[in-house]
């Protein structure tokens, strides 16, 4: 029986694992290998890396640091999580792992545009022609030609946010028509944001990314899909943990879910989806787990 089982090996889960191991607690991480951080070609937003760092490199460093303190890292997917009087049992392909507590750091999955094939999508992402986080890399599109794929609240908000980086913004409808309120249309018009769509295909060009629109192909430097994401909160939801309307896990100020002994950190929690924020929540969660375990039985060397 581990002191804590961490499900998810992104920045939140690995930060928590490092803290927990340094608290002299037994901890294992089960990582499906789907952290969104691994998709980041180079982040210049993360403090301490003035020249930027690739997401895979950051995760490699964090895994190496966790292993220094004896953290067991399993590369697999948890298919079920059960709760009993002793704690929790996670089921994955090789068998089961049991923990007195569980930290869920399972993150979210970006919804990808349907109009681009997987190979082109990955090449576009690696070269900055496709971007998913304007908070992370909006600076990199300063004064460039940018398209936002989306509509409604999500598309309108992202287009207006990016207007702080460049005056050349086009909001492109992913479906037949835009779904915008009169107020949203006014806000976009006042900001000088053009409307277009629907887009029928997305292609890579040598100098950027091309969207096929009714009026013809349009070339942009970068495209931001504003299509939302799917939250990986199913394991907690089956245990009855409170979730937001979109499926984000609800936690208290110390990362506790509504299920005793179950904690959550990172993008799976309602809040700011940023590496630094996820790492902070991982540290808070780990410290809370340590203190909650100590309240049940003293932790002494």
UniProtKB/TrEMBL annotation:
Keywords: Flavoprotein, Oxidoreductase. Residues 3-282 form the FAD/NAD(P)-binding domain. The keyword Membrane does not apply. Pfam families: Pyr_redox_2 (PF07992). InterPro entries: FAD/NAD-bd_sf (IPR036188), FAD/NAD-binding_dom (IPR023753), Ferredoxin-NADP_redctase_2 (IPR050097). It comes from the Bacteria. Gene3D superfamilies: FAD/NAD(P)-binding domain. This is Thioredoxin reductase. It comes from Novosphingobium anseongense.
């Amino acid at each position: 029986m581990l002191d804590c089982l961490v499900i998810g090996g992104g920045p939140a889960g690995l930060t928590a694992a490092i803290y927990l191991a340094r608290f002299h607690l037994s901890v294992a991480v089960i990582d499906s290998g789907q952290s969104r951080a691994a998709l980041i070609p180079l982040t210049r937003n993360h403090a301490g890396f003035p020249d930027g760092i690739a997401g895979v490199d950051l995760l490699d460093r964090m895994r190496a640091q966790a292993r220094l303190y004896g953290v067991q890292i399993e590369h697999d997917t948890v298919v079920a999580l059960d709760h009993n009087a002793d704690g929790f049992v996670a089921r994955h392909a090789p068998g089961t792992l049991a923990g007195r507590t569980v930290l869920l750091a399972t993150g979210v999955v970006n919804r990808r545009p349907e109009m681009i094939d997987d190979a082109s999508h990955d090449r576009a992402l690696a070269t900055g022609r496709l971007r998913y986080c304007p908070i992370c890399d909006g600076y990199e599109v300063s004064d460039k030609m940018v398209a936002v794929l989306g509509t409604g609240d999500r598309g309108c908000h992202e287009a207006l946010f990016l207007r702080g980086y460049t005056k050349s913004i086009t909001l492109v409808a992913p479906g037949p028509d835009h779904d915008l309120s009169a107020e949203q249309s006014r806000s976009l018009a006042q900001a000088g944001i053009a409307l277009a769509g629907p887009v029928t295909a997305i292609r890579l060009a040598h100098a950027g990314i091309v969207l096929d629109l009714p009026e013809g192909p349009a070339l942009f430097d970068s495209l931001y899909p504003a299509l939302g994401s799917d939250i990986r909160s199913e394991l907690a939801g089956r245990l009855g943990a409170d979730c937001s309307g979109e499926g984000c896990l609800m936690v208290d100020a110390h990362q506790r879910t509504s299920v005793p002994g179950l904690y959550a950190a990172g993008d799976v929690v309602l809040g700011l989806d940023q590496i630094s924020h996820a790492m902070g929540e991982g540290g808070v969660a780990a410290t809370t787990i340590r203190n909650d375990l100590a309240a049940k039985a003293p932790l002494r060397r």
